[in-house]
Amino acid sequence: MSAPWPQEARWTALAVDLGSARTRVWAPSEGMVLDVPTVTFPDAGRGRGQGRGACALHPVRRRAIDVAGTARTLDRLLRQGPPPLERPLVLLTAPVLDGVAYRAAARAAVEVLRPRAVLTVPTARAVAVAAREDLSRPLLVVDVGARFTETVLLVDGAVADAHRVTLGTPGLDEEPGAAARLVEAVAAMVASVPDEDRTAAAPSLPARGVLLAGGGALRPEFVHRLARRLDVAVKVAPAPDTAAVRGAAELLGSARRHPSSTGGARLPVPE
């Protein structure tokens, strides 16, 4: 549900998380102002709801974004009667392993919000900020989303390593074996990090454990199975399904001071 908008408010900054299941937008002054399924109904007609027979489209998929469809999802902010936007600074979360074309399409989609600048932040870093993690120490973040699961090693807050599998939350509650497959996939990704990491981070990772976020972190049985399989501490981020957008909102304070926020430049996600 979207939060109500005080008539006198004007947004100067927005955090945007384009998930394949849900699209979320957070205004630091108001909190969550958009939290809707990432589904559009282009045949329904503007402002008339879904309509009988409308064809549902899912515009955000792994490694691909339909710019027009995603823009229609974000356009709900403008159609539901919010106060006028003052060309806000937009901070957009982005999965680490999505390519340059994906990030360019995401930035193109948020142009519907008429931003003065669009900055991007790795989703894993935003999650760590929302969880109040100490980023001066190496951290493993596991983000279990609707269409894929990403395991990211952060060192000094920057991405040092990342892995992904095309398994996510669908089927965790109903499909036999789905949770077991995902647990084994995450365990394999976590185990590969010390082998591939070339920094001093690897020895300290088992002691610190992993930070879990995304919709999968809302399944207690899955979390317990994962903790047993990894044999390390598994910390669930507070409100794990919204951690990314909330962390991005917290980072907006420093983003506003970035030189690109006034010049309209685009800051790419660190590789």
CATH topology of the largest domain: Nucleotidyltransferase, domain 5
Helix content: 25-40%
Radius of gyration: 19 Å
CATH class of the largest domain: Alpha Beta
Q: What is the CA-CA span between the terminal residues?
A: 34 Å
The CATH architecture designation of the largest domain is 2-Layer Sandwich
Biggest sheet strand order reads 3-2-1-6-7
N-to-C series of helices and strands: EEEEEHHEHEHEEEHHEHEHH
Q: So what's the overall shape?
A: globular
**How much β-strand is present in the residues?**
15-25%
Taken together, the total number of domains comes to 2
Major sheet attributes: 5 strands, mixed
DSSP, total strands: 12
pLDDT below 50 for ≥5 consecutive residues: which ranges? 1-8, 47-53, 261-271
Structural class: alpha/beta
CATH superfamily of the largest domain: ATPase, nucleotide binding domain
Q: Kindly report the average pLDDT value.
A: 81
Number of helices: 9
Task: Give a quick summary of the entry.
The protein has 271 residues and is of the alpha/beta class. The protein has helices at 67-74, 76-79, 100-109, 123-130, 178-196, 205-208, 220-230, 243-255, 260-263; strands at residues 13-18, 22-27, 31-37, 60-61, 64-65, 89-94, 117-122, 139-144, 149-155, 158-165, 210-213, 234-236. It folds into two domains: 13-125 and 243-263, ATPase, nucleotide binding domain (Nucleotidyltransferase, domain 5, 2-Layer Sandwich); 132-236, Nucleotidyltransferase, domain 5.
